[in-house]
Amino acid sequence: MAQMSKLKILVVEDDPLAQTVMRDRLVDHAVEFAANVDEARARLETRPDICFIDLDLGDGKECSGLELIPVAISMGAYAAVMSGHDSDRFVDRAYELGCRDFCAKGNEAANVDLVLSRFLSLREKAAGGALFSEEFITEDEETRAAVGSALKYATSDLPILILGPSGVGKTSLARIIHDHSGRAGEFVAINCAAYTEDLLEAELFGFKRGAFTGAAESRKGKLLLADGGTLFLDEIGSMSLAMQTKLLKAIEEHCFYPLGAERPESSNFRVISATLENVQDLVAAGRLRFDFLQRVHGFAVQIKPLARRKDDIFPMIARFTQGGKRLSFTPEAKVRLLAYDWPGNVRELKRLVDLLVAGEDGRVSEQVLAALVGGAARPEKAAGSSLPDKTLDKLIHDISSKAGSLTGAASLLRAAPPEKARTLLAMMTAQTGKLAAAIAALERVRAA
Fold this sequence. Notes:
By secondary structure, this protein is of the alpha/beta class. It has four domains: 8-124, Rossmann fold (3-Layer(aba) Sandwich), CATH 3.40.50; 139-302, P-loop containing nucleotide triphosphate hydrolases (Rossmann fold, 3-Layer(aba) Sandwich), CATH 3.40.50.300; 307-373, Helicase, Ruva Protein, domain 3; 392-447, no CATH class. It is built from 21 helices and 16 strands. It has helices at 16-25, 37-44, 68-74, 88-96, 108-126, 128-135, 141-151, 170-179, 197-205, 222-225, 241-253, 279-284, 290-297, 313-320, 331-339, 345-359, 366-373, 392-399, 410-415, 418-432, 435-447; strands at 8-12, 30-34, 50-53, 78-83, 101-104, 160-163, 187-191, 206-207, 219-220, 230-234, 255-256, 265-266, 270-275, 299-302, 328-329, 363-364. The strands form five sheets. A five-stranded parallel sheet has the order 2-1-3-4-5, sandwiched between helices. Strand 4 (78-83), helix 4 and strand 5 form a beta-alpha-beta unit. The longest helix has 19 residues, at 108-126. It is globular and about 80 Å long. The relative contact order is 0.07.
């Protein structure tokens, strides 16, 4: 979302001065006003996106605006109350009737922005199918929930911390959050692990000509380049404590001194950060300042490794090859893709797809994959197993004719130790395409 879309808004307010304030705040949208209940009911027939409701409409009734909340909701509007009557009794009643937000009058600028942000976030979530099929590819429900939760805060200034191993898509998610933020500025990313302390300071804060040897001309830093946009700090755990102290002050004050500067620069940037390390362990080890973590933490989102969301492998491959050369995999090749641990996560999968598209036939065999990914993860032999000790290659060959149905493979699953059973399950899944049924079958067999 590069810019906030024009919304259809109804403001129910009887005070002319308050109407003027709201008109000024909503100048970029199509706004209508209603001064009483009857007028509001009539205008709600036009089905606005958002309805701002004042409770006291000067008609002699106590908080008559409350009766408009269910009416607005029935017309599909996002109902938000903005009123001077903010006692607990009225707040509770408004929420019971279904309003989404209740804001006390007196800070209309922040309150209107909050309501608009919340409405747009909910609308983005409702259109989440495109998000997970085009932007952040995943079939995993936990991952969808995590990404959806992060996007609820996209239009706010709240810092977001993205956690997960290397290659899972932390930078991609940060860019998606920025794209959904409505911020007009740029998405500016920096990998803190790629620089020494001195170079990182120069990259972040910028410098003036002559600030150090080799500074032949002035240069803007990432903090200033991110003005009005998003600053993405990748691998924050690699920063020195001294660098964290300097950056903490700049984030808190949105004001900083470039190297060699006599006057400060200001920048209105939003911070998103990421690390593959456990932040609590970093704090305990003295490598991450607690106050710095609190400043960049805000909302934390954890992205699972690809090994724990293998249903994403084939949708990702389809997305990576969209509009170009498509790939097809033999059943044995599918098994190998599903059995592999993917230590490099999505980045490794993308590299594999690039290799296959550029240098291999469109029909991909298990032998081709074995050469490119270094072989699938091979299960260890379990002590006391009744299953003969075979390599994964031979095991796949033997089972391929028997895994056409879940029932036909049940005896093999019953005899297999857990690690080999999981490999057989991957085989069955690749051939049947019914993951849920295969998992259920495995649970029944292993419990027998």
